[in-house]
């Protein structure tokens, strides 16, 4: 059987996404590969399809127990022989699963990296033909990655004790150049091919909302999206608990997830979310790495994450089915202090701490800049889009007005020049504001010519003008724990009275509760008019939920939201037409096709 036939028969798609076919072919040729592909690009299919075509079994090393269960549930529902072995298995369950593996009744086996250090497991696998070893979330092997797991370092040694070396596939969603080199070296890849997919997620809409009432925003947003699944991320356990309690008090269907909870409570919470029994999870970033729930429609970061890698991976948990998702970051400057404190408390190596603080500065730039948010993210990961503005993120959508800021920027340049590049943005703003702080008096800066020059502005307004002056190249800011601000050649020209400085600002500041839902006008799902199709989509979603309850599986395992939207649009009235819907494979067609055709038919009759 060819890969394309497997794709259609088991997964219901007639063509591969960009990059998938090449990765699959590489593994089938028994050649190692490293695939860096964004969340939602279909990494799992890249190893699941070769696993079905190669002899023997495929072993998948996965960092989270919850991910194993989600993926195995989905595979088994499609009659793909898969299982997992982890600490949550009872003795009897583990015995049955080992027996099934030995009997050749299983093709894919999911395990945690810690399992490779178990002597019995290693001895057992030495007697089984392992054709392929897959390392999911492979960035965890690098201490320079954002989710370092020391147990991943055991992978290379474990491979060496097998009677025959399997083909190795390493997969991750994000990786810097240093992490990429670590993955190749520390996992022992040989003659590997490297695939770096485009990082763009066109179905995701990015927005930063600054300096507002965060809880008011969340309550308003959830009120407009009550029937959708979403995740709200916060930086600390304490903040997760506070948000959770407030949302529950307001009647929201909400759960919480953080490392301070018991294993059983976390498992129960994730299961309720996966099975659509709660709509929203409030969580620290411990929740959701590799989460396989495809119908998450929104991600709200209540506080700024510590780096772009973490943010993009967490935001990428929205819209995995290809349907629209929204990624909103609620930013306040106190978030910077929180993240600096967490870095200083958790990272003790000076070099690593310096690196993490530098990455934090890039995250702050993302939040505070006027740039296209999508372009900034892609540039961070090394892509250089031909366009400068995507015209479909919060910054590109924002109406702006131009203002002459020549005098203000000249005052800022004077202040920076007087400080000789020895201080950062906070000191510059305080001097221009005319602050009477102890530090200013200690250095005698109240005698500077620039002291109080922008006293009619708030400190926040001064900071915004300084930040834009940095973006526009009049000033530059150093890297490191304490970034210093200095003049550029362009800044010296402004200081000498040459030229005008025109800055853009938002035409109006919206109150958090008034921020528009997703996009104005009718919302489009792929090429569909969601507003017109919503009634039938809700009928199909209810049918899916009922089937999921009967079978004790997550609803998205039956069909994704994207598949339901296509059904609502095309309204198939026969199994032949239903088979043409993306995501309807042969097994699901025969198992569920008639129920959904009946639901569509009944809805159509009621509309006549």
Automatic annotation (TrEMBL):
Q: What would be one Pfam family of this protein? A: RecQ_Zn_bind
Q: Which CDD domains match?
A: DEXHc_RecQ, SF2_C_RecQ
Q: What is the lineage of its organism?
A: Bacteria, Bacillati, Bacillota, Negativicutes, Veillonellales
GO biological process terms, semicolon-separated = DNA recombination; DNA repair; DNA replication; SOS response
In its UniProt entry, the species of origin is given as: Megasphaera cerevisiae DSM 20462
State the EC number(s): 5.6.2.4
Q: Which domain of life is it from?
A: Bacteria
Would you name any one GO CC term?
bacterial nucleoid
Q: Which PANTHER family match?
A: ATP-DEPENDENT DNA HELICASE Q1, DNA HELICASE RECQ FAMILY MEMBER
What does the record give as cofactor?
Answer: Zn(2+); Mg(2+)
**The name this protein goes by in its record:** DNA helicase RecQ
Q: Does the keyword Hydrolase apply?
A: yes
């Amino acid at each position: 059987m060819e890969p394309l036939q497997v794709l259609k028969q088991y997964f219901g798609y007639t063509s591969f996404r960009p990059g998938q076919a090449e990765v699959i072919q590489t593994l089938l040729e028994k050649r190692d590969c490293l695939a860096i592909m964004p969340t939602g690009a279909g990494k799992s299919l890249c190893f699941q399809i070769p696993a079905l075509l190669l002899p023997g079994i495929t072993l998948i090393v996965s960092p989270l127990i919850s991910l194993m269960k989600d993926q195995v549930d989905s595979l088994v529902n499609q009659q793909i022989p898969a299982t997992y072995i982890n600490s949550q298995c009872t003795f009897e369950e583990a015995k049955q699963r080992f027996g099934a593996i030995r009997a050749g009744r299983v093709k894919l086996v999911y395990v945690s990296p810690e399992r490779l250090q178990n002597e019995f497991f290693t001895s057992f696998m030495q007697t089984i033909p392992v054709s392929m070893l897959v390392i999911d979330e492979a960035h965890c092997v690098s201490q320079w990655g954002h989710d370092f797991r020391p147990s991943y370092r055991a992978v290379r040694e474990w491979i060496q004790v097998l009677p025959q070396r399997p083909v190795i596939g390493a997969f991750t969603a994000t990786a810097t150049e240093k992490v990429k080199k670590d993955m190749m070296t520390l996992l022992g890849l040989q003659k590997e091919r490297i695939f770096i997919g485009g990082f763009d997620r066109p179905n995701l809409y990015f927005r930063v909302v600054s300096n507002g009432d965060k809880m008011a925003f969340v309550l308003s947003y959830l009120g407009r999206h009550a029937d959708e699944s979403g995740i709200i991320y916060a930086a600390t356990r304490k903040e997760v608990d506070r948000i959770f309690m407030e949302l529950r008090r307001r009647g929201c269907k909400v759960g919480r997830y953080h490392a301070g909870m018991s294993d059983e409570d976390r498992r129960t919470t994730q299961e309720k979310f996966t099975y659509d029994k709660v709509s929203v999870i409030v969580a620290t970033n411990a929740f959701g790495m590799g989460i396989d729930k495809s119908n998450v429609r929104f991600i709200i970061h209540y506080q700024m994450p510590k780096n772009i890698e973490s943010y993009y991976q967490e935001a990428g948990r929205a819209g995995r089915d290809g349907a629209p998702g929204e990624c909103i970051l609620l930013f306040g400057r106190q978030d910077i202090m929180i993240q600096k404190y967490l870095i200083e408390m958790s990272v003790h190596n000076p070099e690593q701490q310096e690196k993490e603080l530098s990455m934090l500065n890039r995250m702050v730039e993302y939040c505070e800049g006027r740039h296209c948010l999508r372009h900034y993210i892609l540039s961070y990961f090394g892509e250089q889009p031909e366009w400068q503005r995507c015209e479909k993120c919060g910054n590109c959508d924002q109406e702006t007005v131009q203002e002459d800021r020549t005098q203000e920027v000249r005052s800022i340049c004077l202040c920076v020049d007087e400080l000789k590049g020895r201080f950062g943005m906070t000191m510059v703003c305080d001097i221009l504001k005319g602050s009477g702080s102890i530090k200013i008096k200690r250095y005698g800066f109240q005698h500077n010519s620039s002291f109080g020059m922008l006293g009619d502005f708030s400190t926040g307004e001064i900071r915004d003008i300084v930040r834009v002056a940095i973006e526009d190249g009049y000033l530059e800011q150093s890297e490191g724990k304490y970034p210093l601000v200095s003049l550029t050649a362009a800044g010296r020209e402004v200081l000498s009275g040459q030229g005008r400085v025109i800055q853009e600002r938002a035409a109006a500041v919206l109150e958090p509760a008034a921020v528009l839902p997703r996009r104005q006008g009718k919302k489009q799902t792929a090429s569909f008019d969601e507003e017109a199709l919503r009634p039938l989509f809700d009928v199909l979603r209810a049918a899916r939920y009922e089937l999921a309850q009967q079978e004790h599986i997550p609803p998205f395992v039956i069909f994704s939201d994207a598949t339901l939207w296509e059904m609502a649009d095309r309204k198939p009235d026969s199994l032949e037409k239903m088979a043409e819907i993306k995501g309807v494979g042969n097994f699901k067609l025969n198992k569920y096709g008639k129920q959904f055709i009946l639901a569509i038919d009944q809805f159509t009759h009621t509309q006549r």
